[in-house]
Amino acid sequence: LHVWQTWPDTVKPGTIPDDGRGLNPLLQNFWMVIHPPILFLGFASTAVPFAHSISGLLRRDYKNWINVAIPWTLFSAAVLGFGITLGGFWAYETLGWGGFWGWDPVENSSFIPWLLAVASVHTLLVQRRTGGFQRANFLMGMAPFLLVLYSTFLTRSGVLGDTSVHSFVDPGMWVYVLLVILILFFASVGLGLYFFRHREIPKKQISYAVTSREFALFLGAASLTVVAAFTLVGTSAPLITNLLEGKASAIDTSYYVKTNLPVAIVIAIMMGFGQLFWWKKSNSQTLMRTTLPPLLAAAFITITVIFAGMHDPAMILFFLSSAFAFFVNLQIAYKIAKGNPNYMGASLAHIGVALLFIGIIASTRYEQHVTVPLTKDKPAFVFGYRLTYVGTTQIDQEKRAYNVTIESGKSKFVAPLVMYESSYNDGAVMRNPYIFSLVNYDIFSHPSLLAFIGRNMLTRDLYLSPQTIETSGGNGFQSTKYGITFQVDKDVPIQVGQYKLVFKGFKVAEDQRQAMM
Questions:
Q1: 98, 92 in Cβ contact below 8 A?
Q2: Which of 17, 166, 136 is nearest to 66 (CA)?
Q3: What are the start-end ranges of the H helices in 366-460?
Q4: What is the C-alpha separation between 421 and 99, in angstroms, rounded?
Q5: Nearest Cα to Cα of residue 29 among 89, 116, 83
Q6: In the Cβ-directed half-sphere of 3, how many Cα atoms lie within 13 Å?
Q7: pLDDT tens-digit profile, the chain (517 residues)
Q8: pTM as predicted
Q9: Are 467 and 474 contacting, i.e. CB atoms less than 8 angstroms apart?
């Protein structure tokens, strides 16, 4: 009924299609099978700390509510982070642009609650240990859930328009109003109750030493909150510009890098020192003794990458701080493992984040990419690899693989690059890259590639993404099969699908002609 009423000129009332359109080809990926439900589970779980913070305020229980909130906040942070990571895998393997994060508003809308959930974990730990941050923790417990509601509004209301590849079409005014009412209701209940009770919440006069774990946890949580705030402003840019200018426009992605990079360096440093500091205050001699080995290791590896070609001062500092965090937490994890491995969680989490930072530096600033034309049976040499296009293989009615042999030394294998016009997306071009890496290739089926993997794949991927298929004709033109550009000669007809095109000349308005002169 909705379809008949919405598109009366296209679908006649009473028409029932024999079959649906199926699943979008972009979503036909393993990671997309588990990414949405896990992300939804993370979103839903943020409601539990929110509910317990409300319960604590209602019952005037300003201390014990965190005993239940802490494990749920940890769960939310872990599941949300896992879901975001799966989305990055999907983007890397499916979209063909070689990246895993594009600062898209909908991507950010899951990233912001995760940042605040992680920040909340740190401040809750301080309250459990020292009784500090009692007032702040009520707000931190509410924030992730409220930001989840806001992300739902951004995604489902249609306010993002064409500024996000993930946004849905405008569902109508009633959905927009309903989402706004939900946000205002929960925000009013939570924040209103907090401001009504906040004077009753005990405020301990605690001073933390700069070299205390409490201070490191506070600074880390504050840094995460700052990143969330910067990202929230950029994510809301389409909504803000639509209100001010009447047209939604997204902010340039360089904004996120410029604003968040300095804060990320602080986070990396705190991930290191936070594990070395003691509660209340650290002994200076012990601190120096435990800091020196990981600092020297980080300095050594940083000098190595400088000689390897890293010259950007900001990236060098970011790499140094991330390497320092990695070696500190590796040292701490080793010591804990010899005693009680159950307490290794924080160290392992920080090791993972430090490796993530190092991976971001390497993959975004120091990747190598080139576009190379391949003619059948004529090899091309790229980054030490010999690439040869050898022909096509029909996969199904639509999909076709363009097979490229890749040779390095004595090793040789075939990479099927898939590119096709999708009937689901009205003829839009779908590209499926081929990724050769240590983690996704069966070396047991191809033992001859073991040496090749050892030489090339321990620290990098070989990422092949098809772009266009160019065909040459005998009448002096070249056409791009999968694209929108056709090179033609004047008055020479060309056949494009069912259409015959003839270029006659340019028609330029007089004012534009004078401007060009």
A1: yes
A2: 136
A3: 450-456
A4: 22
A5: 89
A6: 9
A7: 566 777 777 777 777 666 666 777 778 888 888 888 999 999 999 999 999 999 999 999 888 899 999 999 999 999 999 999 998 888 888 877 767 888 888 888 899 999 999 999 999 998 888 888 889 999 999 999 999 999 888 877 777 766 665 555 556 677 778 888 888 999 999 999 999 988 888 877 777 778 888 888 999 999 999 999 999 999 888 888 877 777 777 788 889 999 999 999 999 999 998 888 888 787 788 888 888 999 999 999 999 989 888 888 999 999 999 999 999 999 999 888 888 888 888 899 999 999 999 988 888 777 777 888 888 888 888 877 888 888 888 887 778 888 888 887 777 778 888 888 777 777 777 788 887 765 554 444 444 444 444 444 445 667 777 877 766 544 444 444 444 455 666 677 776 656 777 877 766 544 444 433 3
A8: 0.81
A9: no
- For residue 466 the two structure tokens come to 């098809």
- Give dist(CA 438, CA 433) in Å, integer: 16
**CA-based radius of gyration for the chain:** 28
Amino acid of residue 493: P
- How far apart (Å, rounded) are the C-alpha atoms in residues 344 and 340? 8
CB 255 within 8 A of CB 124: no
Distances in whole angstroms, Cα of residue 489 to Cα of each of 81, 482, 494, 500: 54, 20, 9, 13
Cα–Cα nearest to 255, from 239, 270, 236, 268: 236
Helix locations, 131-253, DSSP H: 134-156, 173-197, 213-235, 237-245
Alpha-carbon distances of 260 from 215, 228, 257, 456, rounded to whole Å: 21, 9, 5, 32
Q: Cα–Cα distance between 431 and 466 in angstroms, integer?
A: 6
- If you count them, how many residues does the chain have? 517
333: which 2 tokens?
A: 């994890």
Identify which of 250, 223, 252, 258 has the alpha carbon closest to the alpha carbon of residue 106: 250
Q: Residue 164 belongs to what H/E stretch?
A: none
**CA-to-CA distance for 381 and 407, rounded, in angstroms?**
10
Strand partners, 479: 471, 486
The alpha-helical segments, DSSP class H, found in 277-311 are 284-307
